[in-house]
Amino acid sequence: MRVLIISFTTMRAAPSGPAYVAGAALAAGHTVEVFDSLFAPDLNGLEEQISRFEPHVIGISIKFVNGDIVDESAEFNTRRFDHRPQVKDMVERIEAVSDAHIVLGGPGFNYYGPHWFEYLDLDYGLRGEADLSFPLYLQRLGEGGDVHSVPGCIFREDGHVQVVPRDLVADLDATALPAYELFDLDAYLEHGISPAIVTKRGCTFRCTFCPYSSLEGKRYRLKSPRRVVDEIEHVCQARGLKKVSFCDNSFNVPKKHAREICQEILDRKLDIEWYTGALKPVGITDELCELFKASGCTSVGLAVETASATMLKSMGRGYTVDHVKKAMTCLNDSGLPFGVSLLFGAPGETPETIAETLDVIDSFSIPDGFWASIGLCLWTHHQAVVKDARRAGQFESDKELFDGAYYISPELSKDYMIELIGSLRARDDCTVQVNKAYAASS
Q1: Domain range for 363
Q2: pLDDT in tens, 40-66
């Protein structure tokens, strides 16, 4: 079958999900092309590609429904975006030139299937991991089989939405290699974006603001270090690249796994560079930092989020202030460039806890500065913080999640937050993203 994978996003990031799904379809013997909206913001060329390629199936990977991006000209340094009208326009343009079966998927679809069906007047999608489910869908569609029993599918029939339970892929080494060769990697590199590789799935942390473990499971499923480095070689050889990123939410957890990946890179004597945007401040030692550097690491992002003991407990982060300080000390001593991410406004946040965090941050030199997000994005009831938002009167209906909902601690007054945002924006070492500036009642 001819399969077109559409990577839909306007956010500058590697198309890792679409690349893995495209790879799965290729490995199953299908003819695959991709259309990347990142470099076609007006969807220029979409109809032409569809008319030329004549796909039997079009898979649309939606990265975000809506959200916020930094914009120096906008109020509070942040501009809101809503991708839904663009997705709707894209679907209408597809349907005007093609009778292909449309399958929805991606992070921006996982929690919102019924809402997307109603909004787009479509009726089929896949939730969660599509490495096996998408090829199975293609197989059954081609054979005239039952596509409504594919694990992870969600569909609308006779006005009713049905959901089939997802299967988590047990053996990640057996999944297909990402088909980055189908993407214009030169265009990504011009924007400083390298192909991203996933080394594991699942998460053992219990952060109250994150739904990650509900989607991928509460234990780690690891790719073998050999398989991870096979992927690096595959991606680099496809386009003569020498740099990749690891897009795990916690590359250094489990620590043993990260160490073995670095050692495998060294054992193969690969001349590559890599970076990751999400280290947890646990298990970071001088030795680990040196191993990172020796294996080609050029920079890391440290997901601190808070350095207040009160807030670490409230947010369920699973580490202590001492862990944060040790991680930053080791990174400083190693000379490895790093940045820090902070998240202000979770339940229990006060001016005092924010001051505690900033006191720790300001006691270190951070080469790449820190990113401060203010206010929490609400995506799904799988986030524990949604209950706090309901109790605080900041959230009522689940429909608000599809429209874009936010929470911020009501203990942070409007006057204080406006002053805090102004002071952070005035710093040379800080980038501020304001999801929600203050509670309406503050």
Answers
A1: 194-434
A2: 989 999 999 999 999 999 999 999 999
Residue 440 counted as domain residue: no
Residue 243's H or E segment, with its range, is: strand 243-246
* In a shared domain, residues 337 and 235: yes
Q: Which amino acid is at 326?
A: K
Helix (H, G, I), strand (E, B) or coil at 307: coil
Tell me if the pTM is above 0.85.
yes
Tokens (6 digits) for 245: 């990123």
Of 260, 300, 311, 304, the C-alpha closest to 280 is 304
- Kindly list the distances between the CA atom of residue 235 and the CA atoms of 165, 215, 232, 268, in Å, as whole numbers in the listed order: 32, 26, 5, 15
Query: What's 170's DSSP letter?
Result: S
Q: Are residues 50 and 124 in the same domain?
A: yes
Q: How many domains does the chain have?
A: 2
Residues 184-200 pLDDT 10s: 999 999 999 999 999 99
Neighbours of 383 (CB within 10 A): 23
Are residues 291 and 263 in contact, defined by beta-carbon separation less than 8 angstroms? yes
**Measured at the alpha carbon of residue 19, what is the angle toward residues 18 and 23, in degrees to the nearest 5?**
115
Return the SS3 of 158.
coil
Domain CATH code at residue 57: 3.40.50.280
For residues 71 and 293, give the distance between their C-alpha atoms in angstroms, rounded to a whole number: 33
- Tell me the three state secondary structure of residue 251: coil
- What contacts 352, CB < 8 A, 6 or more positions away? none
